[in-house]
Design a protein that fits this description.
alpha/beta, 45% helix, single chain, Alpha-Beta Plaits, six-stranded mixed sheet
Length: 141
């Protein structure tokens, strides 16, 4: 029981640390973009995924999106119940979310694994929140 409780506490602490790092990265990216827009030309996107998606396919998606003007620092396999979504956190983020949705849909369709996504507003306390791509898909390619 003690080992289980310790593991659960470590898991909670790790999630909090990851969130803190994400918030810091988003804030620093926004500051750098405001100070020197020519050095930060990419939109920050976090990917969370579940299902039968292989990490190699997610990495291919990340590479594809990076050529389209997005910065994707990594992808996180996350258990839970969620749909295929693109989340944006400020009204001015919706056009970027729609473009991300289109690029992601095109990527999966080109691999014979169509996906249905929708863009939705999310809640965040950060004024510099990035986009989030949530994938709950079962593409085996």
């Amino acid at each position: 029981m003690k080992l289980r409780d310790a593991a659960l506490k470590e898991q909670v602490d790790a999630r909090a640390s990851v969130q803190e790092l994400r918030d810091t990265l988003a804030e620093l990216t926004a500051k750098a973009q405001a100070a020197k827009p020519e050095i930060v030309k990419h939109r920050l996107v976090y990917i969370q995924f579940r299902g039968d998606l292989k990490r190699s396919l997610i990495n291919d998606l990340r590479a594809s999106l990076e050529t389209g003007g997005y910065s994707l620092p990594g992808a996180e396999r996350l258990a839970g119940e969620y749909d295929n979504l693109v989340k944006y956190f400020r009204a001015e983020g919706q056009p970027s979310a729609d473009a991300l949705l289109e690029a992601t849909t095109t990527f999966f369709a080109a691999r014979g694994c169509p996906i249905s996504l929708r863009a939705v507003p999310g809640k965040s306390s950060s004024v510099t929140a990035p986009l989030e791509l949530w994938l709950a898909h079962s593409c085996k390619s």
